[in-house]
Write a structure and sequence with these properties.
The protein is α+β, with helices and mostly antiparallel strands and 471 residues long. The protein has helices at residues 2-9, 18-28, 51-57, 59-65, 85-97, 105-117, 121-133, 140-149, 153-165, 168-171, 180-187, 196-213, 220-229, 243-252, 258-274, 280-288, 353-358; strands at 34-38, 45-49, 78-80, 310-313, 316-335, 339-347, 365-375, 381-392, 396-407, 413-429, 432-434, 439-450, 454-459, 464-470. The protein contains 17 helices and 14 strands. It is flat and about 95 Å long. One of its GO terms (biological process) is neurogenesis.
């Protein structure tokens, strides 16, 4: 005990920088001259600080301790009911140590509120930078809430960019609710990777939530009243829907009047009957003029967002002397977090003796033809991709899905690949593959018909060597 006390007395000797000295001063809580009661109700905590350190960084603390707000009562404990003790400690970590470390976006959002309250612009910038760097589909709603509540325009623009970049299936959550300003900005974007039908579904879901917030029954009439109040239909390109899409929307929630449905249907049928001909704009325009004033008259579809995918490769544990001669390759895949899967990497065929003969001893490439389908846990097919390409023998190839598929966290998806006749290698691959933000789990199986032994099944024989995704 005496040794510890001695070390505390001589702590200045070992500290070579002012940051280290202030850090230790904060941890030891020595010579404090102000007290904060931080938190609300029984969750409060008493925190002691140094007026000089706080005032040197924040004009709010300067005014409170040494400025116009300083009074004889300034030495009394200062209550801070709107900030959690842990958040206050993180802010003090920055003030004393010139450094702050966040564990998640929730912490960064809370510290951003504290930084704005006490006018700490550099700390605010650090919080915004952390939130932008960690903005993904699975953190979108938390960060959007921070951006809206704290009026962070840069952060809000980044959130809208993520909404535009990914399909509604990837990021939309019916239990969440964005502001009307954010919704208007989003649906007004010309470049969105979400079809018009799903944009209409977003408006319907948002308006239904708005009814619940106003304690109004979410009837079709009330939903339409909310939509009309904010003039949301003026941003949805209803005339670009197909007849099938329109029927799906009407069967779900019909907020349109009979005459509106008749005009929209007539326009869509006219468009579909004409196809992509020069007459389409002239004949369609006469019907557009009959639509209500608050309907969007645009008949061109929005441009889709082009985004890049990253490959998550599986490690090769051992190269088996195992092959399949056509048949079906299965891989059950799951992800630790929500992610948008855009394709798979698989092996290519091995050259046969006939290939050597046909290509005069130098077989280089061949025409690949595969069929890939993905099923969910309910055994429902959610994607089918027919793949054709000229590829190299004994190599790998990327199968880009016909449409990206959103993998929900910890849900198992069965990837089935139908191979044509030919010799394909099977390897022992790792059952997990990791990226910075998620990890994938795999379980492999190959089924094919052997010419001598009939149907054959090989477990743990990997054919899918990687997965392409975008979070």
């Amino acid at each position: 005990m005496a040794l510890i006390a001695a070390n505390n007395l001589d702590w200045q000797y070992s500290k070579t920088s002012i940051c280290e000295r202030f850090k230790t001063l904060h941890h030891l809580s020595k010579w404090t001259d102000c007290t904060f009661i931080v938190g609300f109700d029984e969750h409060y905590k008493v925190i002691n600080c140094h007026k000089l350190v706080l005032a040197a960084s924040s004009p709010v603390f300067e005014a409170l301790f040494f400025g116009l707000l300083a009074t004889s009562e300034s030495n009394r404990p200062i209550r801070v009911p709107d900030i959690a003790p842990h958040t206050f400690h993180l802010m003090l970590q920055y003030l004393y140590e010139d450094n702050v470390r966040f564990a998640n976006v929730q912490e960064a959002g809370c510290v951003l509120y504290a930084a704005k309250k006490y006018l700490l612009p550099h700390l605010s910038s650090l919080c915004v930078k952390y939130l932008e760097q960690n903005l993904r589909t699975n953190t979108l709603w938390d960060i959007l809430c921070v951006a809206e509540n704290l009026n962070e325009e840069t952060l809000l623009s980044s959130c809208i960019k993520v909404m535009c970049k990914y399909s509604k299936d990837v990021w939309w959550d019916d239990s969440e609710h964005m502001s009307i300003g954010t919704l208007r900005r989003f649906i007004n974007e010309p470049l969105i990777d979400t079809c018009e039908k799903k944009l209409l579904e977003i408006i319907l879901s948002w308006s239904e939530n708005e009814c619940h917030l106003q304690n109004v029954p979410a009837t079709p009439a009330n939903i339409r009243a909310v939509i009309d109040k904010f003039n949301l239909l003026s941003k949805i390109r209803l005339l670009t829907l197909s007849s099938v899409e329109l029927e799906e929307v009407l069967n779900k929630v019909n907020i349109f009047r009979d005459e509106e449905v008749k005009l929209i249907k007539e326009h869509i049928e006219q468009q579909e009957s004409l196809g992509n001909t020069p007459e389409i704009s002239e004949k369609a325009q006469s019907l557009v003029s009959l639509l209500p004033w608050d309907f969007c008259p645009v008949i061109e579809k929005r441009r889709t967002y082009v985004f890049s995918s990253k490959k998550c490769a599986r490690a090769v544990l051992s190269r088996k002397n195992t092959w399949t001669y056509g048949g079906s390759m299965f891989s059950v895949v799951s992800s630790s977090s929500k992610t948008l899967v855009t394709g798979f990497e698989v092996y290519t065929r091995l050259a046969s003796q006939i290939d050597f003969v046909i290509n005069r001893g130098q077989p280089n490439t061949y025409k690949e033809q595969l069929v890939l389908c993905i099923k969910n846990e309910a055994d429902e097919e959610i994607n089918q991709t027919k793949y054709e390409n000229i590829v190299e023998y004994n190599s790998s190839q990327i199968i880009n899905l016909s449409k990206p598929v959103c993998f929900q966290p910890k849900i198992k998806y069965t990837v089935k690949i139908e191979l044509p006749s030919g010799q394909y290698p099977l390897n022992s691959l790792s059952k997990s593959a990791f990226t910075k933000l998620t990890h994938f789990s795999f379980s492999d199986c190959a089924r094919y018909r052997d010419r001598y032994f009939g149907d054959h099944e090989v477990r743990d024989a990997g054919f899918v060597s990687g997965i392409l995704h975008s979070i």
